[in-house]
């Protein structure tokens, strides 16, 4: 017994935490976790300047909470990003991965197009898959990602949804355009879901678009019960447009993939533009294709790895 006690005194504290039982009530384990915080590997990436922190939760294990996204997302005291992307093992055996997204304010969202391209590049670069075409489950459904030979990544975003209840948006009936009152002024906009809610406003001058004035007011408008991403679209010609997006929970970003898809769908639906088309955002250009109602929206663009790091949980 004395030998055993002498041996136990030499066992590292972390190992003692592991063998001590029961885990939830073990004060030693709790003290151990406080003194030995978990280090998680992460990758910083961006798609046209829309930047992400990407965590592999397939080969490393952690329980990520909204507070972590908010803490790490701070550009002054954290890592800084628009969204946190989690790569997880799937719940559905028919898909390759599960894809979760948190905004920098800690809110979990349904979809992110630029993030989807970075997700595809990440799982290939990290050798989590050898496939060039992968299926991924998101909070809003399954999407398909195609890593092309030229390095660009195409995402099948699925068909857009226009039914107000599915966006969600409060309206008496479905329409191509709606009037929403903001500060006593009627604002005309299109409402569409690309797995997440979008409002699209047409503007004459992209540089002077009231993104920071109207963006937050429309984002929090009571007719959008889940809040909304707000796109300001300037149509240049039948094949090219400019776009700025106020993202729900993130503010204006350099690019928004689902926002570009929603803007393209709105422009094609209302006869302003034809598919395929190019959307120029502050961070760069996306190619969008949509054949009309019932068809999927295809988005193509780049994904870039910036650096690798570790963060304490």
From TrEMBL:
One of its GO terms (cellular component) is cytosol. GO terms for molecular function: diaminopimelate epimerase activity. It is found in: Cytoplasm. Its main location: cytoplasm. PROSITE patterns: DAP_EPIMERASE. The keyword Isomerase applies. The record marks 198, 247 as: Could be important to modulate the pK values of the two catalytic cysteine residues. GO terms for biological process: lysine biosynthetic process via diaminopimelate. Gene3D superfamilies: Diaminopimelate Epimerase, Chain A, domain 1. Pathway: Amino-acid biosynthesis; L-lysine biosynthesis via DAP pathway; DL-2,6-diaminopimelate from LL-2,6-diaminopimelate: step 1/1. The record marks 307 as: Important for dimerization. Substrate binds at residues 50, 83, 103, 113-114, 196, 229, 247-248, 257-258. Keywords: Amino-acid biosynthesis, Cytoplasm, Isomerase, Lysine biosynthesis. It catalyses: (2S,6S)-2,6-diaminopimelate = meso-2,6-diaminopimelate. The keyword Amino-acid biosynthesis applies. The active site is at residues 112, 256. Pfam families: DAP_epimerase (PF01678). Signal peptide: none annotated. Its EC number is 5.1.1.7. Catalyzes the stereoinversion of LL-2,6-diaminopimelate (L,L-DAP) to meso-diaminopimelate (meso-DAP), a precursor of L-lysine and an essential component of the bacterial peptidoglycan. Belongs to the diaminopimelate epimerase family. Homodimer. This is Diaminopimelate epimerase. It comes from Pseudomonas savastanoi (Pseudomonas syringae pv. savastanoi).
